[in-house]
Design goal:
- The protein is α+β, with helices and mostly antiparallel strands.
- The protein contains 18 helices and 17 strands.
- Helix 14 runs parallel beside helix 18 and helix 15 crosses helix 17.
- It starts with a helix and ends with a strand.
Length: about 625
């Protein structure tokens, strides 16, 4: 081998061209082929070497380098073959082939070693599939990131971080928007802290300092004043990031909770108002959830039983134990039956509270079924109605006393009218007998006295009858029935026929409706109005009476209009008062009770009455009557 190396560049052999007899037809293709092969074998290693160098992530790069070396020596062998045609450097060719063989052997051994690993390399199609999967996951990641950004914007939640060493502060876009600042703006720590409300600025400064110095996290709700001078409630969260036990970064979240905070404040106010309302109304509310077996009592519910709020655990048994022994069986039976049948219940009963006082309560429970969540619960209220019950009891006693008084008054009115009318009848009868038996013995003055007494007795009888009618209106309540007013007017015309003929009165009316009321009282009502129109007529003027009506919703409105003497405006209210006369008895007869009776009849039919009049030209009485029984 040493001998070979010593004479490596000696050309003491016959050139290889002699083997081809220097035939150009053979030599030229061989030379060209070897040279092209040499150039190719030189180019391939260079490309492989650059490929490996530029692809640092390439696995098995050493194999590519081994192939490059193998191909390089193969190329050298082809070049030496071309030289050997003219210059016989066979020893160089031997060394080159030896090197080629060694490199080839090394490459083969390397391939054997890497062969199992190479088999595990994914195929191109597999790589394409993996690449597609990576693209899909990357797309999902982008979508998730967009969704995350949208969510952060929707809930107005941003993030921030502070580099402790450089004191550089970063705000996400959402944090900037919450502060009503431009996105991507640069804000230092001092400016950021100054955004906080003066009442809260010291608090956040201490929290940030403590987080940096002692690595203590914070989560607080504070107020800020934005760049546009708007006050907002925000939630600030911060946590220190440590490196070698020392804080290097402070990072956290920042959220706009103004709406939530104001709703919480409103809820607190509502709860406070509800508690005040419960205290004023002496009531409490409760809830019993079936699925979670949870019971809730409001403060008012505890107070009704005499407990402080939260003093005991709410339960049905506690509520039942407070029920008065005489009411316990009824109450327990009603509630348990309602629970078994999923029904509402409502009942009143007595309880004995913790102060040993007997109180009366009204308890109402409502069964609630939630089909969407399959939840079921009872909700209800308990109200202390002790005072109302006592008032109701007194009211009932007063009503009974009033009914008794009305019956006594009615009996008294009947007896009084009977006892008063009997002496009048006797007086009138005896005076008439005296006039018949002894009239020829009396002078004109005596006859005048007797006539005056008889007329006074007649007026007294009329007055007593009117008072009896008024008394019955006050005490006797009758059921409302349909009343045909056309029939009523016809009866009134018959009763007043003599007065109508004597006064030449004219009564006009259209077809009248059917109303609900008492027929007898309707007859007296229209008779009093029409009788007054005839009575209070102007001298030498025939009375004209018109009855009009219109539909005014739930009632009919009536107007009875005449052309009589009229009424002055200052007497519009007085005329409906009992015994209030506007004229002397010599001018117009009567007791002064007629219009008072009319007003009482209209009042008893839940309606009103009023008068319109022009003195010297006539009057109109306007009132309403019911369309229906209700």
């Amino acid at each position: 081998m040493l001998e070979l190396l010593r004479h490596v560049f000696e050309n003491d052999f016959m050139p290889h061209g002699h083997c081809y007899f220097w035939e150009k037809d053979i030599l030229i293709p061989i030379v060209i082929g070897d040279l092209l092969t040499f150039l190719s074998y030189m180019t391939i290693p260079i490309l492989l070497w650059k490929f490996v160098k530029n692809r640092e992530d390439l696995r098995f790069g050493v194999v590519f380098k081994a192939f490059a070396a193998f191909i390089f020596f193969c190329g050298i062998g082809h070049l030496i073959d071309v030289i050997n045609i003219w210059e016989p450097y066979y020893r160089v060719s031997a060394i080159a082939k030896m090197c080629t063989g060694l490199v080839s052997l090394g490459t083969v051994l390397m391939l054997f070693k890497l062969y199992p690993k190479a088999l595990k390399l994914p195929s191109v199609s597999r790589l394409d599939n993996i690449n597609d999967e990576l693209k899909r996951k990357n797309k999902e990641l982008v979508e998730l990131n967009e969704m995350y950004d949208d969510t952060m914007k929707a809930v107005r939640l941003g993030y921030w971080h502070l580099d402790v060493e450089s004191n550089e502060l970063y705000w996400s876009d959402v944090v900037a928007v919450i502060h009503e600042m431009e996105r991507g703006c640069n804000v230092d720590v001092a400016s950021a802290l100054n955004f906080y409300h003066p009442d809260h600025r010291e608090v956040i400064s201490e929290l940030v300092t403590n987080a940096i110095q002692n690595s203590e996290p914070f989560d607080v709700q504070l107020k800020i004043i934005t760049a546009s001078q708007n006050e907002l409630w925000v939630r600030a969260i911060g946590k220190a990031e440590l490196k070698n036990g020392k804080p290097v970064k402070l990072k956290g979240l920042f959220q706009d909770i103004d709406d939530l905070k104001r709703k919480e404040e409103q809820l607190t106010q509502n709860e406070s108002a509800l508690k005040e309302a419960e205290d004023l109304a002496q009531l409490g509310n409760w809830r019993w959830s079936f699925d979670r077996q949870e019971r809730y009592w409001s403060d008012g519910r505890f107070k009704i039983l005499g407990y402080e709020p939260g003093e005991i655990e709410p339960s049905l048994q506690v509520a039942l134990d407070s029920v008065h022994p005489e009411d316990r069986e009824r109450v327990e039976g009603t509630i348990k039956q309602a629970i078994e049948k999923d029904e509402d219940y409502e009942l009143s009963y007595r309880i004995i509270n913790q102060s040993n006082e007997v109180r009366i309560v009204k308890d109402k429970g409502v069964f609630v079924n939630l089909p969407h969540t399959k939840g079921q619960y009872y909700a209800g209220i308990v109200m202390d109605i002790t005072d109302e019950s006592l008032k109701e009891q007194k009211l009932q006693e007063s009503l009974k006393a009033l009914e008794r008084s009305n019956r006594e008054l009615q009996d008294f009115a009947y007896v009084a009218s009977h006892d008063l009318q009997e002496p009048l009848r006797v007086i009138t009868s005896y005076l008439q007998l005296i006039e018949m038996s002894y009239g020829h013995l009396l002078d004109d003055e005596g006859k005048l006295f007797i006539e005056s007494i008889i007329k006074a007795s007649a007026r007294m009888k009329t007055l007593i009858n009117d008072l009896l009618v008024l008394s019955r209106l006050e005490t006797k309540q009758r059921d409302a029935v349909p009343v045909d007013l056309n029939k009523v007017i016809n009866i009134v015309k018959e009763d007043l026929s003599l007065k109508i003929i004597d006064s030449n009165a004219e009564i006009k009316h259209p077809e009248l409706p059917v109303v609900y009321g008492d027929e007898g009282r309707m007859r007296r009502l229209f008779q009093n109005f029409i009788g007054n129109s005839i009575k209070f007529r102007r001298p030498d003027v025939d009375p004209k009476i018109e009855i009009e009506w219109s539909d005014v919703g739930e009632k009919y409105q009536f107007k009875i209009k005449d052309n009589g003497i009229g009424i002055k405006e200052e007497y519009f209210e007085r005329i409906f008062t009992i015994f209030q006369r506007l004229h002397t008895r010599e001018e117009y007869e009567g007791t002064g009770i007629g219009l008072a009776i009319c007003k009482k009849i209209v009042d008893k039919h839940d309606s009103t009455i009023r008068v319109e009049s022009e003195y010297g030209k006539g009057s109109s009485f306007i009132f309403e009557l019911n369309k229906s029984k209700g």
